[in-house]
Amino acid sequence: MAFPSTLLLLLIAAVLLPLPAALCKPTRTLSLLATPLSPDPVTTPAASQSLDQQQLSLAAHDGNASTLHFRLAHREDFALNATASDLLAHLLARDAARAGGLSSLLAAVGNATRPRRRGGFAAPLLSGLPQGSGEYFVQVGVGTPATASLMVLDTGSDVVWLQCAPCRHCYAQSGRIFDPRRSRSYAAVDCVAPICRGLNSGGCDRRRNSCLYQVAYGDGSVTAGDFASETLTFARGTRVARVAIGCGHDNEGLFIAAGGLLGVGRGKLSFPTQIARRYGRSFSYCLVDRTSSVKPTSTRSSTVTFGAGAVAAAARASFTPMGRNPKMATFYYVHLLGFSVGGARVRGVSESDLRLNPATGRGGVILDSGTSVTRLARPVYAAVRDAFRGAAVGLRLSPGGFSLFDTCYNLSGRRVVKVPTLSMHFAGGAEVALPPENYLIPVDTSGTFCFALAGTDGGLSIIGNIQQQGFRVVFDGDGQRVGFVPKSC
Ligand SMILES: *[C@@H]1O[C@H](CO)[C@@H](O)[C@H](O)[C@H]1NC(C)=O
Using CA atoms, how far apart are residues 381 and 338, in angstroms rounded to an integer? Predict the structure, then answer.
C-alpha cells in the first residue's frame, strides 16, 4: 500500500509547488469596529467656548524650554449643528480643492511662468495653497500683550501670516483681529533685511522703509500687508521673539474660521526654519481621527511639538529619508516604494509612477497635513485598489462609489468586520502598517464604508491626514528624515 500513498504525495506536491508562495499564505486581516456616521447633529464643546478660554485649555507645557508643545483643534471642532454627513461632504469638497491646488502649484512652477506685477508686487500667479486649506488649527498668542489667534497648521506652505487691523479688507474669522498698534513687540521689517528679500512676492514701502508681503492662492484668494517681526506665545506662556510674520490688512478668500496660517513647510520663511537656531529644525505632530471629538469616550487629542521633544518618540519610529524638490522648496517629499495588502506585496506598482523628476519638478510623493484623502498616481491607485478588492472577499461590495471613492462596502448590521491589512513601504526599509480605520471609513448613516484613497492624474501623489491618523509623524529636519511612530497620540 506504500506505492499509492507516495504517488498521492507526489501528486499533491506537483499541484502545490508551481503556485506562488503568496497564494498559499492566508490573507492577513485586522478587526474594524464598523460604526456608521451618527445621524444626530454634532455640537462640540469647543464651538461653545470663546477663543480666549480655549487658549488656556488647548495649552500644554512640559516645562522644558527647549520644546514647544501644544494642542491642535480640528476644523470640525468649530462646526455648529452640522451632521457627520454634512461635515464629510464639506471635507471632501475642500479636499478636492486642496489636492488640485497642490498639483497646479507645481504645474505652474514647472511651466516657469514669469512673475506678474500686481499692486506693486512681483507676484507669481500661484504662490500658496488654495481655498480653505488646512484641516488642523493651532492657538497662537500674537504680540505683547498676546491676542489669541487661531491659525491653520500647514505643511504645504511657508509664510506665517494673520489678518491685521486696520482692515482694508478682512474676511470673517473666529475671535478678535490682531491690532499691531496695541502690541509693544511689533516691529516693521526693513526692506534690505535678508528675510524681506527671501519673500517670493515681496515689496517695499519706501516712504516707511517697510517690507511688504503678498501671498496669492490658486483660487484667487490673497493676503497682503506688512511683513513684520513679532513675538508669538505658545502653550502656557512659552514666548518666541522676533518671528517674521505677514500682517495682512487686505485679505480675501475662503479661510473660514482661522485668522491666519502657520506655515511649517521646508522653506526659508517657515516657522520651524525661523526658530531652528534655538529649537532645532524638527517638529512632529499627531493627528487624531477627525471624528474623535464627537466620540465622548475619546480622550486623545491632536498635538504638535517643536524642538527637542519633537524627536523624543523617535526610538520607536520607522524612518525614511526626507526628499526635496529643487523646483519647490516647501514640500516634504518621501520616497514611497509600494504597498502590501493582506500581507502580500501589491504587484504592478511601478516605482516610476511615484518618483519625483528633479529636472521637471513633476511627480513624487509628499506628506501633507492639509489634504485629508491620500491621492496616488492613478495606475498605482488602481493596483492597490484591485489588490484590496481581491483580498476583501468577505465584504459585500456596494454597487457604485461615493464622491471620489470607487470602492465601497455595505457593512450594514455588522459590528466587527475583518478587513485585509494595508501597509506602505518606504525607502530605507520603513513599513507603515495602517490601522483599519485609516483606510475604511464610514460615509453614511446606513453602514456604507469606503476604501479611503483615491487616484490622481495631477502627477503629484499626496499622503493625506486620514492615513496619518494615530501616528506621530516626525519631520526631522536636522536628520533629513521623516518618521512614523504607531499608536502614539
Ligand atoms: C445593505 O445590506 C442590507 C442587508 O444586509 C440591506 O438591507 C441594505 O439595503 C443594503 N444597503 C444598500 C445601500 O445596498
Answer: 10
